[in-house]
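Most newcomers find our protein records easier to grasp once they have seen one. The structure tokens are whole numbers drawn from a learned vocabulary of backbone shapes. The record below serves as our worked example for the rest of this section.
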Amino acid sequence: MRIPLDRDDERPLYRQIQEFLRQEILTGALQEGTRLPSTRGLASELGVSRITVSNAYAELEVEGLIYTRLGSGTYVAPGVERILRDREKETGLDHWPPWQQNLVHDSPLYASSKRDRTRALMSAADGTISFAPGIGAKEVYPIRGFLAAVQNVLRRDGSEAMSYGEIEGYQPLRATVSHILSSQGIPTYPEDVLITSGSQQAIALVAHLLLRRGDSVLLENPTYSGAMMVFRALGVRMVGIPVDQGGMKVESAETLLRKAHPSLIYTVPTFHNPTGTCLSTDRRHQLIQLAERYNVPVVEDEFAGDLRYGGQSKPAFKTLDPGGMVIYIGTFSKVLMPALRIGYIVASGPVLKLLQERKQMTDLGTSTLIQRALETYITVGRYESYLNRARRVYRERRDAMEAAIRTYMPEGTTWTSPDGGLFIWLQLPEGLSSSDLYPVAVQQGVSYAPGALFFHDAEDSSYMRLNFALHPSETIGEGILRLGRAVDLYRDMSQT
């Protein structure tokens, strides 16, 4: 394939290849189903590295113009005209009214970046073993038990289950949440609980209440990407604290509190997302003391605390709360099933009433039917039984992933060994980029969440987040084998 490359052009070589192929596809010169040259073959023909061709193909795949069939090759995608028409509607601004154009220019979330392109790639193709999602295993979901709970609620409550409920949430469910937390050493009263549509809404409610454009937030770096999305939308400045094996390095927090004057501290202290670490008890005490001294509220995001497989439990910040300093966020979506969209906020003082008002403005209340079904499911004892099963399965899968990493990943690879949660945080050997590796990994039939997605200040990273809960042990082994193969191939391509 003759692709004219100008090495004096300011455009990168991969971009020139991408634009040439894009034009060929658009004009019909490369028709639907046409097989493109292999990355090795095209790289050799053009006198460039294979990673250059892989990056060009990856960009075309994001656009929906080509697709890769594992073990077969790369092909021009069907329905190109429709794809282009839809994409022009998304990205072309000139034909939209001025107020819509202004929205785009003013939005901190609209600008594209390497991080956004990587996120777009994370929709894995058929046959790809994906370690990217932040959810539990579908085969472990308690679907039958929850279906029985829904049917029970419909028989018992009838039309009441289909009506609007209390803004603060279904009272028996709030009582159940308070009972669960109190049994875990977090004294909670039902009136302190606000039911939300997942923890993502909980984070958004708190952030919109407590933060204004230009404010600062102190958080782990890396941290949960969904929280950073909220902070970016608000135009908030994120001040990161590094993470080590003991969680957030609180030792550096006081200097940042003095300099940045944050309006909020956001932390995922237990089975941290993405690193899987747990904040040590000493650091928890230090941080809560600092928060009280500098009068900064702490938002504690406890997304997977029930999924503990070993180690000693640590006291929640809410347990250490001297009185009204901590807003605690929990969820059933990560532990049970994502589609539940049931989370909760635990807070005391005037802030709770203000959060209830925000909740009312947002959606008038979380689904009454799902709240009642969840409360029924938990009350009859199925929840604890499910947790025991999930812990056993996920512990085995964590161990299987660690064994596979030791076997198939190259020397110099490091990773966390979490006592719970869903994730292993893996660092590639020195000099390797998880973002640049990604298209090569997808071609080998495996995907992951590149580390850059979890840093507020990094376009690239050598880290990746791997979800060990999603797949059976044999699939995990095959996936890590493919990942190790992709690393070897990526190294070869970078050196040619």
